[in-house]
Amino acid sequence: MSTATAVPWPAPPCLAGVALPLLVVVAAAGVSLLLFRKLLPAMDGGRGAGREARLPPGSFGWPVVGETLDFVSCAYSSRPEAFVDKRRLLYGSAVFRSHLFGSATVVTADAEVSRFVLQSDARAFVPWYPRSLTELMGKSSILLINGSLQRRVHGLVGAFFKSPQLKAQVTADMQRRLAPAFAAWRDQGPGARLRIQDHAKTMVFQILVRGLIGLEAGPEMQQLKQQFQEFIVGLMSLPIKLPGTRLYRSLQAKKRMARLIQRIIQEKRRRRILDGDGRRAPPQDAVDVLIGAGSDELTDELISDNMIDLMIPAEDSVPVLITLAIKYLSECPLALQQLEEENMQLKRRKTDIGETLQWTDYMSLSFTQHVITETLRMGNIISGIMRKAVRDVEVKGHLIPKGWCVFMYFRSVHLDDKLYDEPYRFNPWRWKEKDMSTSSFTPFGGGQRLCPGLDLARLEASIFLHHLVTSFRWVAEEDHIVNFPTVRLKRGMPIRVTSKD
């Protein structure tokens, strides 16, 4: 990639706000880092001429902190990929070694290497996450478990998420919630100011929770939302569980959420017993699917933990996808015009024949899907994924030693000018010809752990965009994308809307 020379390397002063916490997080890695430094020459050169695979080029950086501070400094900038781009230029390789977040790490911006790792099973790589995140998710999380149990849970949830039944339910729910929200915007008069990100989060959370555990809007939904907000802010906190710490408060919030969800699970189990086999209705939510599988492994605790984990996209993924799409469209009038024309045609056609829009109608909007795809490519809501090698692995001539992490940095792949013409330009039209199934486009990960909700994310974004562009005109205020620790709009994407009616 040739953009490294055009990207300014962030200056050291911007590290002031993050240096101390990160030092605490990675201090325990100091001894292992020094040990790695001593072992590195033997590991790299001891394989001899008869073995092709070698450690990738690179550096472990500074003692104790490695290259973590450089990575975080770039992550907070407008070009987070600068960390990878600079090293690609320096080492002449899209695969290099580093030391990040307390672990020796192979960083890859090579799409083929990333695909190989994503497609590998637990005999080669297992998930790796920061300690605070693993503490909060728990040992039974679908993000951490391996083997047949992971495949079973992922398969059951994934099949339900792809089912026409759930898509129809989500469509009806979203249409029902959009109507009063839009009416309230109209009541504020022309030029009403609102933050799209906030509205999208509220709506998507309620819809997803109903699809997961069957909970309707009301006091319990509000309680769950409050506890979820307390829970999610601890995902990237310091791994200290003392009373009063961020992680401790988030763990307590998760316990309260789990109690509520387990009450729902137990009530569903009792109802199944009373109804008997002959009177059971089709599953209405993900809990119904899992308890209906009839497996002793799928305990109430495992189900409740995974329902909480599956709520995370309602905060950090789908609402951000919707918000980013509106930002990019606001900055590209030609794309907005074509999107509006496509959606207005659909609305007029369905109105003329007196039919309600179905989920298949929204997904049939080809240019709308191109807009969503391009938003995923540019926005990089999931910038990368980490795995840990459980044995020595060789791929494309590179050695990944046992115990090392692999950081698959999707953002650099999605913004690689060798793969995408003018990668920093929002261009939905590129997807008319480009294949989304290639290894160079992985916005939802891949392999056995491919995000099970990818179809629902596209559907919800399509519905929101359709009703927005067919109901309102808007003027967007300037806002900036924050990329770390999660992607979001700094000001929530404020826009001023005027009804088309």
Strand content: 5-15%
- Going across the major beta sheet, what is the strand order? 1-2-8-5-3
DSSP, total strands: 12
Helix content: 40-55%
Please give the radius of gyration in angstroms: 24 Å
SS summary, helix count = 20
How far is the N terminus from the C terminus?
Answer: 48 Å
**Overall residue-averaged pLDDT value:** 88
Counting helices, strands and paired strands, the structural category is: alpha+beta
What coarse outline follows from CA principal-axis ratios? globular
Instruction: Outline the biggest β-sheet.
Output: 5 strands, mixed
Low-confidence stretches: 1-50
Would you mind describing this structure in some detail?
This protein has 501 residues and is α+β, with helices and mostly antiparallel strands. The chain is built from 20 helices and twelve strands. The protein has helices at residues 19-26, 30-45, 68-75, 82-91, 111-119, 131-137, 147-161, 164-187, 196-213, 219-232, 246-275, 286-291, 300-309, 313-316, 318-330, 333-352, 359-363, 366-379, 410-414, 454-471, and strands spanning 95-100, 103-108, 125-127, 192-195, 384-389, 393-395, 398-400, 405-409, 472-476, 481-482, 488-489, 494-499. A hairpin with a 2-residue loop joins strand 6 and strand 7 (398-400). Helix 8 packs antiparallel against helix 9 (196-213) and helix 8 packs parallel to helix 20. The chain is globular and about 65 Å long. Mean pLDDT is 88; it is low at 1-50.
